[in-house]
Amino acid sequence: MALTYGQFLAVFVAPPLVALAVLRVRGPPRASERWSLAGVGVLLVLALMYTTPWDNYLVGRGVWTYGDGRVVATLWLAPLEEYAFVAMQTVVAGLWAQRVAAAADASFVPRVRNAAVGVAAGLGVATAGVLALGTAATFYLGAILAWAGPVLALQWAVGWRYLWARRRSFAVAVGAPTLYFAAVDRIALADGVWALSSEHTTGIAVAGLPVEEGLFFLVTTLFVVQGLLLYDWVVARWA
């Protein structure tokens, strides 16, 4: 197909974003509409702030590269389209999560012992990532885990028990965007929009998708979904 990065976004990322936005606008009005949309906006800014240094570092290390003539221009080391992808993925996952998530429960009260468990689990993810950074073949895998661990530790400290109580709708909120973006990522890889370094990856794939890419879309979707569900809980308690 020889897609450019911009065409990839237009064909595979823009349609679900537009569809979810239309459903949101045409759906029944909700009292929390203003606050919930503000949550998506906050996460969009945080996603760009947290992802940009990490993304550019990995590009500089040669973990992935982009096909010749596939990008318009770069900002720092990453293509402009890369920043657009991060933003669009965040909005898609956010709007989807708010559409399928269970109603916020203002009665939930976090407990210190649960916070300790959440922190320990997140730091365990980060530690596994740091250890994996020491081997070339697991470098990308380790970079994802080390980068994701601190955010997961914070979110799980606040409300892993709250998320677990909503595990069915939570699984739908996380699962659908993860699978969709993993599938279109496989298309982009096959088409040569971008490519992963064989030196910095394990070479293990599931249904043709490198496990590192599947993990990346899982953790980034978790960031968004968990962030929004906990944000809605905070707003519900404040209200």
How do the helices and strands follow one another from N- to C-terminus? HHEEEHHHHEEEH
Overall helicity: over 70%
Give the radius of gyration: 18 Å
The general outline is globular
What distance separates the N and C termini?
A: 51 Å
- This entry's quaternary arrangement is single chain
- Give the beta-strand count: 6
The parts where pLDDT drops under 50 for at least 5 residues are none
Beta-strand residue percentage: 5-15%
Helix/strand layout:
Layout: H1 5-26, H2 33-61, E1 64-66, E2 74-75, E3 78-79, H3 80-100, H4 112-132, H5 139-165, H6 167-191, E4 194-196, E5 205-206, E6 209-210, H7 211-238
Antiparallel strand pairs: 1-4, 2-3, 5-6
Helix pairs in contact: 1-3, 2-3, 2-7, 3-6, 3-7, 4-5, 5-7, 6-7
Describe the protein's architecture and organization.
The model has no long low-confidence stretch (mean pLDDT 95). A two-stranded antiparallel sheet has the order 1-4. It has a two-stranded antiparallel ribbon with strand order 2-3. It has a two-stranded antiparallel sheet with strand order 5-6. The protein has 239 residues and is mostly helical. The longest helix is centred in the N-terminal third of the chain and has 29 residues, at 33-61. Helices cover 72% and strands 6% of the residues. It is globular, with a radius of gyration of 18 Å. It contains 7 helices and 6 strands. The chain has one domain.
Short précis:
The protein has 239 residues and is mainly alpha-helical.
What are the main properties of this structure?
single chain, 239 residues, mainly alpha, two-stranded antiparallel ribbon, two-stranded antiparallel sheet, 7 helices
